[in-house]
Design brief:
This protein is of the alpha/beta class and about 350 residues long. About 25% of the residues lie in helices and about 25% in strands.
C-alpha cells in the first residue's frame, strides 16, 4: 500500500509499505474521508515529538472496514466507521483508572502518526476495534464526520477541562477548528459570554455562528487588556486554550478569576518551559487551576458526539473550507494546514471506490 509519510523532521513524501496485519481484536480499514491537522504540522516541521522515519501521517478519518479480527463482535466487513484520533488500549490499568488516553504511559492512547503509522494511506490498522470504532449513521456525510475524529472531541475536552458551567463567562484563546468547537461546546454548556480570541475573518464568522458573543483580535492590541476592559476588570470564569504557545498561559492566568479553571488542549510543539505569572496566579494561592489533557478517544465518545450532529446541535461542516477528492490530494491538504491561508479553516479529502 502507499501512504504519505514523515521521512524525517521537515520532510514528507509518499512511500510504499506492507498492508497492516489484523490482530484478533483489531480491524483493517480503508479511508473514506481524511482531514490533515495542525498537529501533523507540529510533528513534521517542528519535530515536536521527536524524529520519525518513514512513519505514515494522519490521525483523522472515516473509513470502511475491510477486515476484522476473530474476537471482534460488533463490526463486520463493509461497515462505515468513525475512528477517533486517540485509540486507547481499553484493558490497560490507566484506562481502568479513568485515563484511557494515557494507556500504558503518558499520551499512550495517541498512536496514529506518533507510535504507529497513521491514516493517510490506502489501508490502516485500528487496535481494539470494538472499543475504538463507531458506526457512521446513514445520512451523515463522511467529510463532516471526519471532524469527529479529533476537532469535535478535542474542543469538547477543552470545555470539560475548564469545567464550564451555565452562566459562566468564557474566553477561548485560538479559534482554529479546535477552538471553534470549544466555542460551540461552551455555548452548549450554557456559557453566558464567550470571548473568542482570533484574527482571521473566516474563523470569526464561524465563531459567531457557534455562539461567540465577543471577538478579541490579538492583532488589535493585548488580549489581556481587551478582555479585562470588556469585563470591567473582573476577568472571566473559564479559559480554554486552543492555540498560542508556551507564553499563552501568562495571558490565560491573568484574565482568569480566582476559583476559575483553564482547560488547555493546545499541542505545544516548541519551547522548553511554560511561564506562569507569579502575582497574577495569586502568588501561588489564587485557586486558579490549570488543566491540560489529551482528549479521550474511544467508541462511546464518538457515538455521543455523532448524536449532536444527527440532532443538529452542532454542524461541524461549517469548518470545511477546502474539499478535495482522491488520496493523492492529502499532501496538498497537509501543506495548506502548514501555510494556513486566510480563507482556510479545515481541509478534507474524500476517497471514492
Amino acid at each position: 500500500m502507499k501512504g504519505l509519510a514523515m521521512l524525517g523532521i521537515g520532510k514528507i513524501g509518499w512511500i510504499e509499505k506492507d498492508r497492516p496485519i489484523c490482530g484478533p481484536m483489531d480491524a483493517v480499514v480503508r479511508p473514506l474521508a481524511l482531514a490533515p491537522c495542525t498537529s501533523d504540522v507540529h510533528t513534521v516541521w517542528e519535530g515536536a515529538v521527536g524524529d520519525r522515519k518513514d512513519m505514515i501521517l494522519g490521525h483523522e478519518g472515516v473509513a470502511e472496514v475491510v477486515e476484522v479480527g476473530s474476537f471482534v463482535k460488533d463490526f463486520k466487513k463493509g461497515d462505515k466507521v468513525i475512528i477517533p484520533a486517540i485509540t486507547p488500549d481499553w484493558n490497560s490499568l490507566e484506562a481502568q483508572a479513568g485515563f484511557s488516553m494515557h494507556s500504558h504511559g503518558a499520551l499512550g492512547g495517541w498512536k496514529y502518526s506518533n507510535t504507529k503509522d497513521g491514516v493517510f494511506s490506502e489501508f490502516f490498522h485500528v487496535n481494539d476495534a470494538d472499543g475504538n470504532m463507531a458506526l457512521l449513521p446513514k445520512g451523515i456525510d463522511p467529510a463532516t464526520a471526519s471532524m469527529l475524529s479529533d476537532m469535535m472531541p478535542t474542543g469538547a475536552h477543552g470545555v470539560e477541562l475548564a469545567d464550564v458551567q451555565f452562566g459562566d463567562n468564557v474566553a477561548v484563546i485560538g479559534i482554529g477548528p479546535v477552538g471553534l468547537m470549544a466555542v460551540a461546546f461552551a455555548a452548549l454548556r450554557g456559557a453566558a459570554r464567550i470571548f473568542a480570541v482570533g484574527s482571521r475573518q473566516i474563523c470569526v464568522d464561524v465563531a459567531k455562528k457557534y455562539g461567540a458573543t465577543d471577538i478579541v483580535n490579538y492583532r488589535e492590541g493585548d488580549i489581556v487588556k481587551q478582555i479585562l476592559e470588556l469585563t470591567n476588570n473582573k476577568g472571566v470564569d473559564r479559559v480554554v486554550i486552543a492555540g498560542g504557545d508556551v507564553d499563552t498561559f501568562m495571558q490565560a492566568v491573568t484574565i482568569l478569576k480566582p476559583g476559575g479553571a483553564i482547560g488547555n488542549v493546545n499541542y505545544l510543539g516548541e519551547g522548553e518551559f511554560i511561564r506562569i505569572p507569579r502575582v497574577e496566579w495569586g502568588v501561588g494561592m489564587g485557586h486558579k487551576r490549570i488543566n491540560g489533557g489529551l482528549m479521550p478517544g474511544g467508541r462511546l465518545r464518538m457515538e455521543k458526539l455523532v448524536r449532536l450532529i444527527e440532532t443538529k446541535r452542532i454542524d461541524p461542516s461549517l469548518m470545511l473550507t477546502h474539499r478535495f477528492e482522491g488520496l493523492e490530494k492529502v499532501e496538498e491538504g497537509l501543506l495548506l494546514m502548514k501555510d494556513k491561508p486566510r480563507d482556510l479553516i479545515k481541509p478534507v479529502i474524500t476517497i471514492k471506490y
